Amino acid sequence: MSFDQQFTKVLTQDGFLAALDQSGGSTPKALRLYGVPETAYQGEEEMYGKVHEMRTRIITSPAFNGDRILGAILFENTMDRQIRGKGSAQYLWQEKRVVPFLKVDKGLAAEAEGVQLMKDMPGLDALLERAEANGVFGTKMRSVIKQANKSGIAKVVAQQFEFGLRIVDAGLVPIIEPEVDIECPDKAAAEGLLEDALMAHLDDLEPHQTVMLKLTLPEVDNFYMRLIEHPNVVRVVALSGGYSRTKSNQRLARNEGLIASFSRALSEGLSAQQSDDEFDYLLDEAIQSIFEASCT
Question: CA–CA separation, 250 vs 269, rounded Å?
């Protein structure tokens, strides 16, 4: 029953996704921005403990709830931990009415043909079983496009849908994320090639095969409208990609039907050194600004 409730919420409610899925390589930077230097922990286990403290503080804040936040994307290590005595995914849905998603990719391969494909995921089926057992609704996996290279972009999209259909078969909703690097020298051309490739794969889907898309904020406003309106697409969400929160919100607000899935832009300005009142106030301001930009 909760899957149907979650599907309806993601499909119909105003709001956005909170991306709380920084993994191994990006965790030290996320902690530094939060005011936790690398001298504050030793080794990977302590590092993940510190980042779980940060995520727990965000998720348990009164500002963080399902009124404005549709879902939250978790890292596998976060799913395996608890928040106030409940599994992280269960806590999100049961206590906050926020739909849980899980990052399932294992990072990026080396660049070739102007793109970075995802590394292989040999343990994907077992991870999807664990995710479903933990009450996870959907998944997220990221590739990166650095050049307007038609062949490379076609390979990115083909790989995303290959894994995406396995995730659909496992009963979850995949977020397909072919990120266009904001430093791409011909970003608009890359986005044109990407949209064509995505449309071709979407048109091949069966009616029951539904996906979400996570895309970089486009150079041309409303450029992804065909994707947003596609019957197999539950929602198209936007990544901030390194833009500041202000710039991300400005760009997002100009794109009708596109909603946020911000990571750095959500946690921007939050610090371990802040009092709970100050932290909650700043988080509430951030959530409200991203919510408003997502409601256009």
Answer: 18
